[in-house]
Amino acid sequence: MSITTEEIESQPAVWAQALLEQDRSVFGLPGERVLFLGCGTSAFVAESLASLRERAGLGETDTAYASEWKPGRHYDRVVAITRSGNTSEVLAALASVDPGTLRSAITGVRDEAVHDLVDNSLVLDFADEKSVVQTRFPTSTLVLARQAYGYDVDGLPDAAAATLAAPFPYDVSQFDHFVYLGSGWTYGLAQEAALKVREAAQAWSESYPLLDYRHGPIAVAHPGSLVWIFGEVQPDLIADIAATGATVHADDLDPLVQLMQAQRLAVALAESRGLNPDTPRHLSRSVILS
Ligand code: F1P
After folding, report:
1. Neighbours of 252 (CB within 10 A)
2. What spacing in Å lies between the alpha carbon of 149 and ligand 1's midpoint?
3. Is 72 exposed, middle or buried (0-12, 13-18, 19+ CB in 10 A)?
4. Ligand 1 atom closest to Cα of 87?
5. Residue-wise pLDDT tens for the chain (290 aa)?
6. Ligand 1: distance of its center to the CA of 7 in Å?
7. Is 53 in the pocket of ligand 1 (CB under 6 A)?
8. pTM of whole model > 0.90?
């Protein structure tokens, strides 16, 4: 079994452990203006967190790729999400935050450069990973954030375990194109799902905001496409996608369990193509620029 699979399958236990964390301040105190930053997977987690927090009415919340962000707007708190704690663009962004702004980190490690640049941090070291491809660290961050923002996630570890106990519902080798659609906080999940497929399986994958899919991207849908929808979807959109010959997948699982299914798909697809998901092409645990 690959390390990536072991880490995917550890999620029910790791999520349960995440929910025991007591200090939630890194997710922003009520009323604060907050910015979440990250790169790659962590940028998509940042997007989802920002959407969840604003929708919970806890305060204005922005999100940015660390590599694109420039100081200019006022924030009470800037939060960096970085599993490795040493991604160059994240460190550079934190170093340019206006003095007087609280700086926080959500990370998987204790002794890394990010700790020198922040006022407080949440260390989810039990969710850290050996695999380059991130799976349980981002989902654990999201489980905990949802609880911190007042959403009911108590049943999630059991829901994940029940889904893992069932075989994956598709023979993924029948498809050559994977599309993930989401809305609100699940758009970040859709982007992360599509990234997993590219990273682990070197396959053609895309992600879009749910209703934007009809605005152009649907042109490449075909019988080899699997279009996977996070969260709720209107029947007319399903019908429009199905008319292309694509397979449309929608279900009632929690969106984080759906992301776990995308992780399983990425591994199954990699293995069906003779690839090892533990050794993704051209990738390393973090990007450290000289
Ligand atoms: C972010 C990241 C990963 C990606 C790759 C390079 O790392 O972009 O999402 O899979 O390994 O680094 P981090 O800042 O969260 O450690």
Report:
1. 8
2. 25
3. exposed
4. 14
5. 999 999 999 999 999 999 998 889 999 999 999 999 999 999 999 999 999 999 999 999 999 999 999 999 999 999 999 999 999 999 999 999 999 999 999 999 999 999 999 999 999 999 999 999 999 999 999 999 999 999 999 999 999 999 999 999 999 999 999 999 999 999 999 999 999 999 999 999 999 999 999 999 999 999 999 999 999 999 999 999 999 999 999 999 999 999 999 999 999 999 999 999 999 999 999 999 99
6. 16
7. no
8. yes
Ligand 1 mean position, distance from CA 94 (Å): 16
How is residue 275 written in tokens? 């690839």
For tokens 């199954």, name the residue.
268
Provide the CA 43 distance to its chain's centre, in angstroms. Answer: 8
Please report the DSSP string for the chain in residue order.
Answer: --HHHHHHHTHHHHHHHHTT----GGG--TT--EEEEESTHHHHHHHHHHHHHHHTTS--EEEEETTT--S-S--SEEEEEESSS--HHHHHHHHTSPTTSEEEEEES-SSSGGGGG-SEEEE-GGG--SSSS--HHHHHHHHHHHHHTT---TTHHHHHHHHHHSPPSS-GGG-SEEEEEE-THHHHHHHHHHHHHHHHH---EEEEEGGGGGTTGGGG--TTEEEEE-S---HHHHHHHHTTT-EEE--SS-HHHHHHHHHHHHHHHHHHTT--TTS-TT--SS----
Contact 53, 60 (CB under 8 A): no
